Amino acid sequence: MISGDPRVPSSRNSYCPRSDTMDWLQKNLPRMVVAPSFAAILWFVYGFILWTIYVSMTKSKLLPIYKFWGLGQHFRLWRMDRWYVAVENLFIFTVLFLIICIIIGVLLAVLLDQKIRAEGFLRTVYLYPMALSFIVTGTAWKWILNPTLGVQKLVRDWGFTEFTFDWLVSRDMSIYTIVIAGVWQSSGFVMAMFLAGLRSVDDEIIKAAKIDGASLFSTYTTIIIPMLRPVFMSAVVILCHISIKSYDLIVALTAGGPGTSSDMPAVFMTQMAFHRSEIGLASASATIMFITVTAIIIPYLYSELRRDNAR
Amino acid sequence: MPAEASHYEALESAAERRRAIFRWILFGILGLFALYYLIPLYVMIVTSLKDMDEIRSGNIIALPSAFNFEAWAVAWGGRGYAAGDVFLRPFFWNSIQMVVPAVVVSTFLGALNGYALTKWRFPGSDWIFLLFLFGCFIPYQAILLPMARTLGILGLSNSVNGLILVHSVYGLSFTTLFFRNYYVSIPDEIIKAAKIDGAGFFKIFFMVILPISAPIIVVTVIWQFTNIWNDFLFGSSFSFGDSAPIQVALNNMVLTSTSVKQYNVDMAAAIIAGLPTLIVYVLAGKYFIRGLTAGSVKG
Amino acid sequence: MATLQVKNLTKNFGPTQVLKQINIDISDGEFLVLLGPSGCGKSTLLNIIAGLETVNEGEVRINDHVVNKVEPKDRNIAMVFQSYALYPSMTVRDNILFGLKQRKTPQEEMENSLQHFSKMLKVDHLLQRKPGQLSGGQRQRVAMGRALVRKPEVFLFDEPLSNLDAKLRVEMRHEIKKLHEQLGTTMIYVTHDQVEAMSLATRIAVMDEGIVQQIDSPEVVYDRPESVFVADFVGSPSINMIPGKLVVEGSLVAVVPDAQSSLKIPVSGYEFREAPRSGTGVLLGVRPECLMPQSSSEQTEFQLSLPVSLIELTGHEQNITFNFYGAEIVSRLPRGNQLKVGDVVPLNIDLGGVSIFDSTSRKRI
Q1: Facing A208 at nearest CB: one of C47, C85, C103
Q2: What ipTM score was computed for the predicted complex, to two decimals?
Q3: Which of A205, A295, C47, C320 has its CA 20 to 30 A from that of A255?
Q4: Per-residue burial over A141-160, b = 16 or more CB atoms within 10 Å of its CB, e = otherwise
């Protein structure tokens, strides 16, 4: 393929002239390869987001109206009781989800870090819920928490005849059933993250702590876990993200009910968009969701990338 | 001297006792959590093997009196059901038809993108990557409506092909992220050597890069397969009726029963819907975990 | 005051035997260096002494007490690690005092120790910083401070200088030696760098593949290595090994090199452990500094003239490689002689410093 001096790159080889188009092609090929995907992202992600934001500022109902209206839909949104319920639920869910997942995740990771023979097996067991879809999870837990035949019946069969567990159909408690199922699904993931973090701690630090006389407990609490702050940050961000996007789980578990008591922004949006012919309102709620996610993700990405550049 | 000897001995046995107690507590807690994670699966399986009378009279933990697979047959093929009720078989195939092309397309393009953005950097490639990266995090509610309209305009609403398009596009962010992170840690010298040898963009990709990409390809394929198979949001928003994917069918099945609720059928259906990703996870869990932790951004 | 003994120590990692029947006696105040290549077991031995690893067979005794099952924190030892192992989320001050706090040492005593040792190690102005804000050398000093305040009976060092650059390494080496002279505490030091070993040790234990090849003072290890391995490992440039056969003619003993059978190198003055026998295959070990050009006035017992094949300058010395009938031998000479590549030079071997090894057993004879 190359004639002449093999040490000279072929593009500068005077015995083998290359056409300008070949050169141009080689130079721009990478760009051309990325272009279709990039164009797709620009259009289907950013273009669509802009569309949604714009429509949230119009009077659209069943069909989009492109005349600019202003923040009317947003005012409507924040005056709706149902939206407040959704936001409140999101808040309750997120806080509980975060705290419980992290506690369980850290606990299991620390315990699994103790060099046990069954570690591989246990890891598989703790993490398999993540392989299931939220619909499957929701369906399973819907059955387990069934007000008449589920946990309530089980405990009654054990002799506690007065026991009730009807959270699934209780207006006040339905949101907590979502917490239970959500934690079951995602805490294994937090465990995996922390286990990876624990494993990356330099062995010699542990040895030094042993020689210094730190008990296992205080080695973890005063030395290792403070070293894992980046993992905490990642876990919080990712869990928040999962929480805001929660849709499938709620649809399967409670369908947002009873009534709208376990509603969440994602469910609200879909309802408004596809069942209530209120696409302006739906777009407004989607816009709020987008802004919230952006507010969390952008600082996180920024600090992550800065940390990597500093390394 | 003797005092010192017994001092050491006392320390020794105290330490041993502490270690033993600790071990017991450790296994206790780990075991309890294992139960917590396994019991729902157990309940699902066990319920799917009972008949409705047994379910009503017993409780969720009780073992079935016999292994009754009728619920499974109903969940899968709908035998014995009134017309209009949902059973999973056709929707299972919908999902397969949807998943395979989407995984292939998004993985292949992701590999090319990751390769181009890391080994053939051009002005703006960092910004382009950032835009891909951010695309992983957006709540899909922000694109549902315009996507629905677009599919309608393209004549793809209510079709498996429409879903293939959707999943391919939105998978691009993740696949590009995975491959980019993997290729970043491959030394540039390999590419330079190949360039000096006269190889061009595609030749290097197919002859040099792809052969060493096996781990990340597996991770990406598993990730994409799991996410697309498990998707409900896109499926329920963009397809109704015959072209729905399996998770939508499952949900419809559970929500709408014309006759008495058949919990055993529900559970069998849930297991069927979850089985493919579960099998992938059991067989290739190591890669699954790598995908999860690679997805949390590392530069 | 601490003596340390390792008796019949064996350690396996799975099927591999990493330490084989190790026996070492360390007296109070010694500076023992465990020297050897990677994988020889020296770090494992150190970890076992520290209590960080278990033992398959044998005992470790501190002050004559078997401490096999005693926790590291109860053995009254301190350790300095290769990667310093400072606690990243704590300040220098908290790092140094961590061990004392775990022992519930009274506040005043802690403060005094902290002030004393941080001044001694010149890190007293860094107390509020975190390890991430320190340079490599500063981190190593803090690591040593953390060890010192414990006032242990034995100091353990696990390749503490490997992560430092060359200049810093020499500086810290001086510091460690001065420390030993000041404190007089027993120290056990692991390294693969023979220069470190030679300069720091009161005794060196040269290890290879889980066995102690030789344990002696640095002078003896250098001048009278017990095996080919020890001779080759210690000394830079490496010792020259000339394969050959012994020839015994009455009271005259000579080595006939395999490469040049007409040559007879007389070694009659060598202290053989058993009577030498003709025909024994041997390796004649000649240190580079024992090989030098003849001065014209000297008498010679044998003619050895070799051409120069390579000249390397090492600062104030030269390493000159000669072509010894197809093999290479190296000589270490001061600068100043005007040798060029290709010159044929008559050479003299200082036979007082040679070592002879049996070529099958690889041990000194």
Answers
A1: C85
A2: 0.86
A3: A295
A4: bbbbbbeebbbbbbbeeeee
